[in-house]
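Follow-up to my post from last week.
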Amino acid sequence: MGQNVPVRRALLLAALVLLAGCGQSTDPKKQADDLGSVAAEGALLAHDAADGSSTGPFTRVHSGVLREDVVELEPKLKQRALSRLADDIASALDELPDRPDAAARRLDDAADRAEELAQ
Amino acid sequence: MKGVFAIALGILAAIGGFVDIGDIVFNTAAGATFGYELLWAVVIGVGGIITYAEMCGRVAAVSERAVFDAVRERLGFQVGLVALVAAQLVNLLTIAAEVGGVALVLELLSGLPYRALLVLALLALVLVLWVMPFGWIERVFGYAGLALLVFAVAAIKLHPDWAQVARGFVPKAETDNLAVYGYYVVGLIGAAMVPYEVYFYSSGAVEERWRPKDLGINRANALVGYTLGGVLSFALMISAGALLLPQGISPEHLGSVALVAEVPLGQIGLILALVGMLFAISGAAIDSVFAGAYNLAQFFGWEWGKYRHNAGAPRFTIMWAVMLVLGFLVVMTGVDPILVTEISVVFSVVALPLTYLPILLVANDRAYMGRYGNGVVGNVFGVFYLAVLLLIALAAIPLLIASNMGQG
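User reply:
Got it. Predicted complex:
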């Protein structure tokens, strides 16, 4: 009986962790912040790629990872402006490895829009 | 030169243990969220790990026994078994995260598919663990991991406000969201003192056959190695505070961390950052795999040690192979290695007192340690840190929930 207590505690902790992980934000301000974060990071990457300061594999892989972040956010977005912004960011990230200059401009713009939406 | 090689254990334990995938992401995220405000928490963590690494290295040098020997002897079989199960679960999560992290960095370097690189990472780690002598593992992974010092250069090149940086070493909480702040404090201290670091360090001391005459080397290893780890943590946090915070970027990936070196230093910064991360995370994978096997072997009284060669300690060899393959299977399910690390850090925080209390007790036992037992200063630090660990162990889970895993 006594030996089951640690096991039960461990299961309880695991459940708490899962619960904490399930608490994804549906707050539009937080969602705008999250999209702005991805756009700003994508813009940094795009500027570096355009300057030749990055490597091909890194640019391709990391822009793909950032795009996945947007894909994960998209289903939770309730406001049309946020959904449109997410689409623009995703499409700019798709463009990033091949046309970093253009992607940088679009992502800079998207980061600014996200900031406005967050306010 | 001999002196430089002599501190390799501390450097590997620090580079592989202190600066593992969790620390790399956690420190960067802390800098991007709170700027330089949490630098003091790294100081607390570094002080704690130096205190206890020195203590368990001393115990190993004097008694030729590592941490889990002491855990079983001091806590008894039943409580010791609970500590062992907790340690092994955390180790398994850590191994999974580190193996996944190795594959993620290889992906960022090569652009090849992640799952194929997971298999490659597993094979490479098995080869290294099987073939390479302990001393060479220390040197190769410890010193190659020093490429992470590129983040110190990046921090300087990003021109942070040094007055603000200095203020970050004074604890204060100027934030609306105390739960997130507390979560990062617990995470930073917990990540600095993850138990596998001391399991590996003390067992490594036995592997290196330290004796009382080597206590100076032990002190140098603990002090230099973990201070270096702390410097790398500062560099990550300062770089992120200078570059990512003003732009509202919340880094959640290893690529985001590499970007922090790429922006100020270009391609060379990126490549050094990725190579440093590759060796540091591989070192952490090796540390945690060995730590898992050491714990089991010491608890059950099996032959153990890399110095015995693979056939000389068969159960130990089988156990490290099993731990590594289990960790590999966990990440092959597709779970995010970064998420696994964050969870493992929080769970390890809960288990911290069970690891560190027996070390403190044994280091104070004159029958065991003779004239090499703890002095007043060692005990003051030891008791202080044990109290800190108890506090953060109690706070870890509530903060994890209240802060939504630091997401606010």
